[in-house]
Amino acid sequence: EVQLVESGGGLVQPGGSLRLSCAASGFTFSRYWMHWVRQAPGKGLVWVSQIETDGSSTTYAESVKGRFTISRDNAKNTLYLQMNSLRAEDTAVYYCARTGSARDFDYWGQGALVIVSS
Amino acid sequence: EIVLTQSPGTLSLSPGERAALSCRASQSVISSYLAWYQQKPGQAPRRLIYGASTRATGIPDRFSGTGSGTDFTLTISRLEPEDFAVYYCQQYVSSPTFGGGTKVEIK
């Protein structure tokens, strides 16, 4: 059974940093592109970042470029999102998701809540 | 960036009725890369349709997807109580984007 489990969310002050983790199981993690998608309270889904299978290629939404870094450790079957210079508008539930065969998101984690507030 | 516009924002229907949700793209989307998701409060999104018209594993056949180019539709033939939720379309031509969502609520 495919499972994605996020951790590392919490309350952080504006300008602070946080690192999210997503532990993957039930599939060969190293064969899949992975993504982070976020959802602000009461709002819609917004794609944040993606990473290629071996980590050699990464892409970011303009809103987080230069502040967030996606990475992965295929030996540990874990995806990461390092978030620096956090702003109030980064407050959201952050989901990790696996790329499906049709460039969709076929499996999602349960989400990690990040609150940026003083 | 391709912008996806979903309409209506809210659809008020009764169980047993048919729902038609629209997703319009700002430029042509490769049909293979158009998907639909369902999200219920407090839950992660669940994939319903990929490749514009292929149902994901375990999705009932009352859900169907059609469309091509810039116009796509998710149809729920007969609403069941568990279908009242928010639905999102998503494309991935160059970078992924989501539509703003359509809430299907009980009338």
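Chain A touches chain B through 21 residues (CB under 8 Å).
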